[in-house]
Amino acid sequence: MNKGRILLFALVALFASSCVKDLTSEPTAQSEIVAAKKIINTSENAVAGELILYVDEETADLWANTESVTRSGSDALNTAISEFGAESIEPVFNMAINGDEKRAYGLHRWYIAKFDEEANIEVVAEKFAAAKEVKRVQYSTTLARPKVSAHPVPESFATRAEGDMPFNDPMLELQWHYDNQGLQSLYKTAKRGEDINAFAAWKHTTGNNQVIVAVVDEGVKYDHPDLAANMWVNEAEKSGQPGVDDDGNGVVDDAHGYNCIQANGNITWDKGVWKTDPNGIPYWDGDSGHGTHVAGTVAAVNNNGIGVAGVAGGSGNGDGVRIMSIQIFDGDGNTSLAANAKGIEYAADNGACILQNSWGYPLKPGQTMTDGDYQAGYSVELSAIRYFVSKSGCSAMKGNVAIFAAGNDAKATADYPGAYNEFIAVTAYAPDGLPTTYTNYNYGCNVAAPGGDIWISGLTSYEYAYEGCVLSTLPAETIDPISGNKYGTDYGYMQGTSMACPHVSGIAALVVSYAVENGITLTNTQLYEIITSSVRNIDDKLTGTKGYGDHPGYNMGLDSYKGKMGTGKIDALMAVQSVRGALCIPAHVGEEVEINVSSLLGDGNIKVTSYSDYVIPAETRNRLDIKGDTYFSGKIYLTCHNAGVGVITAKYIAGGNAVGAGDTTGGKLMEKDIVLVVRDSNDNGGWM
C-alpha cells in the first residue's frame, strides 16, 4: 500500500453509535451557510462518486503520514465517510517529487474522496463541507471535448521552386500560416504576408531539443512519421519493463507522457465508440486527431523530406523541440479537474517549459465568468498551473509559461483558463489577415495567430476552401467523427483558435531555443512580454464588413474587433530578435524626453492600452538625476540632469482596457524594460 493513500474501511456499528452527531439531524442555518461557502463550484458534469477536498495543514500532514485509517480524527469527517460509503481518500498530487516546492503552492492540501457512485453528490459535498478541517469542496467536473473534425489530405509534393523553400518538406508550400504568398488559387481572399513570418525566423533558429513543449490535448501519435523524431522520450520507461514504474516517478510506462484519464503512460489517439443520438442517428464519440494536429504545428520534423514542417521542428538534424503528450481526452473519456491538474503537475515535474493548451471552458449563452470566478471554482487546476509556471523546465528559463486558445464561439471574451490574467489567450485570423468567423475576442485576449478559416469572404454565394485552414499532422488510423471513416492519411486541415494557439507555443519554443543557443537566460515574464509585443498591427485592417454571401449569420462588422484581438498578429522573427534586442531611448541632459510605449512595441503601430504606472529604480533615478517624471495620455515624460545609462520599466496591458482580476475579465499586465542613454549636449560622441 502506497504511503499517503488512505483507505477508509467500513466502520463498525460501535462507531456509528458513538458519533456525537445524529446522522439524521438537521444542520443549523448558520452551519449551512458556512458549508455552502466552502463548495466552490457547481455539480454540473461532475464525476459521480468523487469530490476534491482542500483541507487544513494539520489534516494534510496527518493523512500524508498515515498508511491507512479507519477514523479521520474528525467527527464531521467521520460522518461523511461512514454515511456515504467512502472507499478512499487520496492525495491529488505526488508529493514524493518536489514536495517542498509543491507545499509552497498548497498542493499537499488537495485530496480526492471517492465514495458510492449512487450517492447524491451534492448531499455528500454538504457533509464534507460541514467539517471544519475541510476548507474547500470542489466537484471534480469533466472537461467537455471540443467537437472538431479534420479534412484529410494525401501527402502532396512541392510545386514552388526549391530555392524558394527553406526546407524540403513537400507540403510546406501549403502551410500559408508560415509564409503566405497570397495565392488566390488556394484561398480567393488570401493576402500576402498574413502569416507568422516563420521563414525569416528560421534563419536565426529552427528549434532546440533542450526545449520541451507539453501538449495538453488528445493523445499525440508519438510514432507518427513526421513527429517521432521530435517526441519527448523517457528513456527509463521506453527501455524498461511493461507495466512497471521503471523510473520511480509514480507513473507506469510513461515513455512519451501521461494519460490523465488512465493515470498511466498509455498514450492513445484512435479510440472511441459508436453511439446513437436521441433521433436514432449514429455518431462517433472519440478521438479526432486534435492533439496530433496541434503537436505538428509546434514541432513536426522539418527538412526530413516528408509531409509538413513545424514552427520549432528543427533543421532535420535532430534539433527540433520535444513534444510531451499530456492526454486529457481518451476515446469517449474526458478528464476531470483533478486528473487534469495531475497531468499539468506531471509536465512540470518532467521538464516541460511551455504548456500548450488548445482547450478551455466555453461559456453557455448568458453565462459569465471572471478572474475571481475561475480562481474560486477551478482552484485545484489553477494551483497546478501556477506550480507549472513556477518551475524552470529549461536551462535558458527562469519560470515556465502557459498558453491557451481563446475559444471558438465568436464571443467578446476569451474562455478560461486562457482569459485568466496570469496566462496568454490566443485569438485566430484567416489567410486574409482578418478575424475568423469563429474566434473569441475582446476581454482576456492577448495576441492573434493564424487559426485558418474554411469560409471565403466576399462572395455572393455559399463557398468554402479547406486550404484556408491550418495544415498539420494527423493519425491516419483515427476515425473522422463527421464521415465515420478513417482519415487514411497522416495529414489534414483543421481550423480554430486551437490551431492558432500552437503557433504561439511554437514561437515561444523558438525564442527559448534561441536563448539556449546563445547562452541567454529569460524569465517567464520576459517571455510573456516578448510574445505580446512581437506583433504586427491588425487594427488598421478592421473597418467595414467581412461577408460570406448567403451563408446565414456570417456577416461580420470588423469595427467590432478593433482593439480586441489582443496586441496584434504575432511575428516569429520579431520574437526571436527580441531575445537580444534592448529598447534604447536617446536623451540629452536637461531636455525632457517623451516615451510612447505603444510606438516601441512590435512594428510601432500596434494597439495596446497604456497603464498609468512605471518603475524607475532608485539606482537609475539617482545616477541620471531624474526629476519631474510623470505619466499622461499613454506617455511617460521625464528629464535627466546627469549623463549616463539607466533602465526604467514601462507597463502596458496586453488585450483589453483593464487588468483581469477579481470580478474583471481583462488583459494581462506586462512590463517592458527601456534603456535610457543620456548624453550631455556638448558630447559629440555617436549613439551606441
What's the total number of strands? Answer: 31
Could you describe the largest sheet, including whether it forms a barrel? 8 strands, mixed
Which class best fits the helix and strand makeup?
Answer: alpha/beta
Instruction: Calculate the terminal CA-CA distance, rounded to whole Å.
Output: 66 Å
Number of helices: 16
**Parts with pLDDT < 50 across at least 5 consecutive residues:** 1-28, 682-688
Fold and architecture overview:
- Strands 7, 8, 11, 12, 13, 15, 16 and 17 form an eight-stranded mixed sheet that branches.
- This protein has 16 helices and 31 strands.
- The model is unreliable at 1-28 and 682-688 (pLDDT under 50).
- The chain is of the alpha/beta class and 688 residues long.
Task: Give structural attributes.
single chain, 688 residues, alpha/beta, eight-stranded mixed beta sheet, five-stranded antiparallel beta sheet, 31 strands, 21% helix, 23% strand, globular
Question: Briefly, what is this?
Answer:
With 688 residues, the protein is α/β, with parallel strands linked by helices. The protein is built from 16 helices and 31 strands.
